[in-house]
Structures are given as C-alpha cells and as structure tokens.
C-alpha cells in the first residue's frame, strides 16, 4: 500500500520538528532568547502575528467542520445495510403474524 503525498509531507514535517527539538535538548544549537529580550517590539509583533494566524486557522477549521455537519449527505454503506435489515425484519414480522393468525384460525375450527 503506497502512502499518499499528504501523509508523506506531514510525516516529514513532524520528523524535522522532532530532530530540531532533539538538537535543542542536546545543545547542538540554541535559539536566541537574548534577541527577544533585546527587541521587545519584535516579540510583540511575533505574538500578534501568531495569534492572528491561529484565529484565522481556527475560523477556517470551524467553517469546514460546520459545513461537514450541516451539508446533506447520503447514507454510509453501514447505514444502508441497517435500513435493508430493518426492512427484512419488518417483512419477517409480517409473515410471522400471518402464520400466527392462520394457526389461531385452525385451532378455532377444531
């Protein structure tokens, strides 16, 4: 089974992030925390940018989820099978009722 391009892409992204985290833990390189303290304007700008991007992403995810929930969709194969089974059970119940009535009528005749 060949994985899709999306799965490969996100797997690579996660692998790169894990490698960066391991490199940070073992001090192969260090991020510049001093730079943040030296330039608070850049820190505030980055926080505002990250917050705005997170809100836009959450908005799009919310729109997508709402669309999936509210859009009319057909039944899944499992639901279709359950509907067919319900019809079969109803038919069998009707046949059993007919048999019970015919047995009762034969008993009354005797």
Mind explaining what this structure looks like?
The protein has helices spanning 5-25, 33-38, 40-70, 77-109. The protein has 110 residues and is mainly alpha-helical. The chain folds into three domains: 1-31; 37-72; 74-110. The longest helix is centred in the last third of the chain and has 33 residues, at 77-109. It starts with a helix and ends with a helix.
User: What's the total number of strands?
Assistant: 0
Instruction: Categorize the overall geometry.
Output: elongated
What is the oligomeric state here? single chain
Largest sheet: none
Q: Measure the end-to-end span.
A: 69 Å
> What's the domain count?
3
Portion in beta strands? under 5%
Task: Please report the number of helical segments.
Answer: 4
Helix content: over 70%
Coarse structural class: mainly alpha
In a nutshell, what does this entry contain?
The chain has 110 residues and is mostly helical. It contains 4 helices and no strands.
Task: Please give the structural blueprint.
Layout: H1 5-25, H2 33-38, H3 40-70, H4 77-109
